[in-house]
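can u pls check wat happens w/ zinc ion
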Amino acid sequence: MRTCYDSKSMSYEVLARKYRPTNFEEVIGQDHIVKALVNGINAEKMHQAYIFAGTRGIGKTTLARILAKCMNCESDTNPTSRPCNKCSNTIEISSGRSVDFLEIDAASNTQVDKIRDLIETVDYKPAKGRFKIYLIDEVHMLSTASFNALLKTLEEPPAHVIFIFATTNPEKIPKTVQSRCLQLNLKTVNDEELFDHFKKILKKEEIKFDDESVRLIVNFSNGSVRDGLTLLDQAIAYGNGELLENEIKSLLGTIDDTLLIELIEYITSGDGKKVFDVLSKIEELTPEYDVILKDLISILHKISLEQVLSNSENKNIKSLANKIDKEFCQLLYEISMNAYGKFSVHPNPKESLEICLLRMLAFNPLLKLSDSSKPIKEKNIVEKKLLKKK
Ligand SMILES: [Zn+2]
């Protein structure tokens, strides 16, 4: 992997680490949460237990660290919403060495004993800072007994303690615990924000890129800055310090949308032979079949939206939205989602995509109409022929 060399130490740092936000101003896409926390700190009205909810890679731990730094920064007599990142407390929190900021992974500490040990430390005053901050990651993994043990502390926490519960599954936290916390829901970052963020970083790193390449990375980031930056690292390594659209496509195992558009077009017109001709073309590009399925789902999604909202700027999507029957489009979506859901258990990735396409053809209302005059047996033969063809 290509690495970003720091001129002073010549040590390398991956982008996700190098550009990890060190204060609230650097956090992107979570304005509502940052605002709530900053207001709380400035008004000196902090809750003692927070739930940070949101999908993985979205910045829950990063926000927890920034909050811990705010509470224990030594630059002011009170907690500050702008930690200095220079005092020993903030430096120690950033590097994971602070004794007053305790990170626990609930997934690997599910036993009630572990939580009891932790709760025993709650009463002790912080060693250096004003507050002792406990970050419990994946808190929903705790056992009922652990939650019960925790609940007693949450009912009357010592004034110097703040709990931050990070979770991808807030609904699995018992209601009794939830009701004692302020829940903040982190959002996935929207594509435009990611796009701007990645471009800024690429400029800083002096890496050549074009917008299309960055778009591809954004599409594959699923709203996660961390996932996006990891991909960016790989893409930069792959392109030897430059972002090249074709290299990124092959890295991501994706292909040009035009082939997938063609595929949907032939499925719509019920032309099985042409569908499999296009599939052979796709195979020549040695793609990742699950990525192809994912792309197919995404295109069908865009078509469905276009049919209701007329919001697409892509002429191919517009034309397909006009051609496909609305209900059939929904059915295609279901079929591809079903195939994608079962993809990991299918013994053969290629066959999984093929059977998905065959199903799409089999349920085409046009084919049904033209076949209705034929006896059912004959119809089966048509489908069997298609199966043989591959
Ligand atoms: Zn400080």
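The first strand starts at residue 4 and ends at 5.
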